[in-house]
Design goal:
The structure is a single chain. Helix content is about 45%, strand content about 15%. Strands 1-2 form a two-stranded antiparallel ribbon. The chain starts with a helix and ends with a helix. About 0% of the residues are buried. It has one domain (about 5-105). It is built from three helices and two strands. It is of the alpha+beta class.
Length: about 100
């Protein structure tokens, strides 16, 4: 994909538009492996791990990223997401929540 140039971009646009129009996601795009990442605490406690899914298909990853960006963009423009919601939003994270809690005191 990196070196595909305009031709690759045009093919991907055609593919993504077809996927969107037909409401069909290729099964290869949905396959991945779950990796458990340790957070903190007792390593024998399964609750101290967070599962992250690593997708195998790069074309599917790009589609998911584009779709997420478009959905979040619409929700933000229409003010459908609370300002308190920071997860999965660009330039927002736990620091924003810490600041919000600090300001509310």
């Amino acid at each position: 994909m990196k070196f595909g140039g305009k031709g690759m971009i045009q093919l991907m646009v055609l593919l993504y538009n077809w996927v969107w129009k037909n409401e069909y996601t290729p099964s290869r795009w949905r396959k991945g492996v779950v990796v458990n990442l340790f957070k903190k605490g007792d390593k024998t406690d399964p609750g101290n791990y967070r599962g992250i899914t690593l997708l195998f298909n790069t074309v599917g990853k790009v589609f998911c990223k584009l779709l997420n960006d478009r959905i979040v963009g619409v929700l933000e423009r229409e003010h459908s997401i609370s300002e308190g919601q920071a997860g999965f939003r660009k330039k927002r994270g736990c620091v924003d929540h810490v600041f919000t809690v600090g300001e509310s005191r």
